[in-house]
Amino acid sequence: MLNIGITTRSFGGLTNEETARRMHAIGYRCTELCFSQTDSKYWVYNGVTDLSDMSDARFSEIVSVYREQGIEVSALGVFTNLIEPDDEKLEGNLANYRRFMELAAKNGIPYLPSECGFIPDSRGVLAQYYEARFDRLKSSLARLCEYAEEYGVYLALECCVLDVVPSAKRAADLIEQIGSERLKVLLDPANLIANSSEEDMFYYLSENIAYFHGKDRHVNDAYGRLVGDGDINWCQFLALYHQHNDGAPFIIEYANADNAEEVYRRVMEFDKLAQRML
């Protein structure tokens, strides 16, 4: 059975309790927890989240809200900038990541995802910055892997065609260079479909996939779409999922409270067709 979930960011206008109940009512089984709900509104993308008033007890209460509804908290979303050029800011980003790891470890959450990070006015693979930014990423990941070993958790790196690791092959190269079992991949096929086929993603990454994001993309789009609205062959992709990473969390992105049920239905229909291909 597909281990389907949805990120809490899809329900940003609801409390954690309301979000968990809505997920359960639709049929979602797991989530990527981000601090995006009205009663825990700390979400910061590509930067630092101020967790100064997030106690261990308060975080455990939030996690319990989901688990009481049968929603497994598979990941705790960080999504900071790992290539930040300012040394002081980068130290803040990594310290923030470490605090997220501490919270996750105390509550049995295995994965902590982040993108590579980006500089807003110069995002992407740019020849004049590429080597320096890739080295910056490697340095950040090496330190974070040491922290992850300490806490017994895993990094889940989400790569993207728009960023410094733009393909499945390059992600596999990076994992080999870091050389730590604590570094895994958050595979979002929409982020790689312009550079990597469905088969390539699993060929290069299946042994290191922590979990999946579920969204779509046309190959010439800059940003993603809802599952079924782009160019990904979902029947093929989900058949490969069952062959290589069956049971891993498949967590929907880009949905909202109004269309989360429709997206669930779409994915489950694709999955029925995928299973006939096995």
Share of helix, binned: 40-55%
Largest sheet: 6 strands, parallel
- Mean model confidence by pLDDT: 97
Structural class: alpha/beta
Widest sheet, order of strands: 1-10-9-8-7-6
Strand content: 5-15%
Whole-Å distance between the termini? 13 Å
Helices and strands, in N-to-C order?
EHEEEHEHEHEHEHHEHEH
Question: Which residue ranges are poorly predicted, with pLDDT under 50 across at least 5 consecutive positions?
Answer: none
- Counted by DSSP, the helix tally is 9
> What Rg, in angstroms, do the CA atoms define?
18 Å
Care to count the β-strands? Answer: 10
General form: globular
Task: Characterize the structure shown.
Helix 1 packs parallel to helix 2 and helix 3 packs parallel to helix 4. Strand 3 and strand 4 form a beta hairpin. The strands form three sheets. This protein has a six-stranded parallel β-sheet with strand order 1-10-9-8-7-6. It has a two-stranded parallel sheet with strand order 2-5. It has a two-stranded antiparallel sheet with strand order 3-4. The model has no long low-confidence stretch (mean pLDDT 97). The protein has nine helices and ten strands. The two termini are 13 Å apart. The chain is globular and about 45 Å long. The protein is of the alpha/beta class. The longest helix is centred in the middle third of the chain and has 25 residues.
